[in-house]
């Protein structure tokens, strides 16, 4: 018995020493809040005996972590920012892994185009919650406001909260998607969300989900390996995403609805 007890911690040490080093990933809050990230990470850890450490932040903050070399790879959804990241030499390529769309959550349904919906929000000064966190969702919201400024001459400002309308009806909260949806629900406001997180929250809130066919509402998620910390595990995770991960993503549902799609 004494010998057996002595061997227990030794066995644990041997198991730890043979495992792969941890893998550091920065990802969007929408990938986490939709629930998909935990499924992918769990399956990868089981298949490859790798500990994945991840932080879920807005795309802008995730890219910043990549610039400083604090993470090994990124999952983000702001194509223009990603291209700038590559052009600046922080990554070699962006690998598309999943897509869905952006939707509007609000007290009532909106029809026609997203531009008509935002026009109605602007003209009637309906309470609007903006993430204001330099995330992919925030970037998409600003692109819609820019289009309305150029096409319908709506007055906008550009400040620390990004490009947006002025008015007490517009709230910039500087937080993730889950916090934005909860605040919109509490205040009966409208907010822009990725479809995955919207589906995850739908049964817990009173807001209705409006979906649109406008091209601008497409939401592409990509994987980028950070050049300065390029590791074998970063590449292994990419291979996983493009193989086993594809099946997981394609079959991932929330209350019976498919949340993501793969090309």
Explain how this protein is built.
The chain has 263 residues and is an alpha/beta fold. It has two domains: 21-100 and 218-258, 3-Layer(aba) Sandwich (D-Maltodextrin-Binding Protein, domain 2), CATH 3.40.190.10; 102-217, Periplasmic binding protein-like II (D-Maltodextrin-Binding Protein, domain 2). Helix content is 44%, strand content 23%. Strands 1, 2, 3, 4, 5, 8, 9, 10 and 11 form a nine-stranded mixed β-sheet that branches. Strands 6-7 form a two-stranded antiparallel sheet. A two-stranded antiparallel ribbon has the order 12-13.
CA distance, first residue to last residue:
57 Å
Instruction: Spell out the helices and strands N to C.
Output: HEHHEHEHEHEHEEEHEHEEHHEE
Compute the CA-based radius of gyration.
Answer: 21 Å
How many beta strands in the DSSP annotation? 13
Kindly report the name of the CATH homologous superfamily of the largest domain.
Periplasmic binding protein-like II
Biggest sheet features: 9 strands, mixed
| CATH architecture descriptor name of the largest domain | 3-Layer(aba) Sandwich
Shape: globular
Low-confidence stretches: 1-20
CATH topology of the largest domain: D-Maltodextrin-Binding Protein, domain 2
CATH class annotation of the largest domain: Alpha Beta
Strand content: 15-25%
Indicate the percent of residues in helices: 40-55%
Q: How many individual helices?
A: 11
Average pLDDT level: 91
């Amino acid at each position: 018995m004494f010998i057996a007890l002595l061997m227990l911690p030794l066995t644990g040490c041997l198991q730890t020493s043979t495992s792969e080093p941890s893998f550091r990933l920065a990802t969007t809050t929408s990938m986490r809040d939709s629930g998909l990230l935990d499924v992918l990470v769990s399956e990868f850890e089981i298949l490859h005996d790798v500990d994945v450490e991840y932080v879920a932040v807005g795309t802008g903050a995730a890219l910043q972590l990549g610039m400083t070399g604090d993470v090994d790879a990124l999952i983000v959804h702001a194509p223009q920012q990603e291209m700038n990241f590559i052009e600046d030499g922080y990554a070699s390529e962006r690998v598309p892994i999943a897509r869905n769309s952006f939707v509007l959550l609000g007290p009532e349904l909106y029809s026609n185009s997203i531009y008509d919906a935002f026009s109605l929000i602007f003209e009637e000064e309906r309470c609007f919650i903006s993430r204001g966190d330099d995330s992919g969702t925030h970037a998409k919201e600003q692109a819609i406001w820019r289009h309305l400024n150029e096409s319908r001459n709506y007055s906008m400002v550009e400040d620390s909260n990004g490009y947006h309308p002025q008015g007490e009806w517009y709230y910039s909260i500087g937080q993730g998607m889950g916090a934005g949806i909860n605040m919109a629900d509490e205040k009966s406001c409208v907010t822009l969300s990725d479809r995955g997180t919207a589906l995850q929250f739908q049964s817990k809130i009173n807001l209705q989900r409006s979906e649109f066919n406008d091209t601008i509402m497409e939401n592409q998620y990509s994987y980028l390996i950070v050049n300065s910390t390029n590791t074998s595990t970063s590449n292994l995770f990419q291979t996983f995403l493009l193989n086993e991960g594809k099946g997981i993503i394609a079959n991932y549902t929330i209350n019976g609805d498919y949340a993501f799609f793969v090309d």
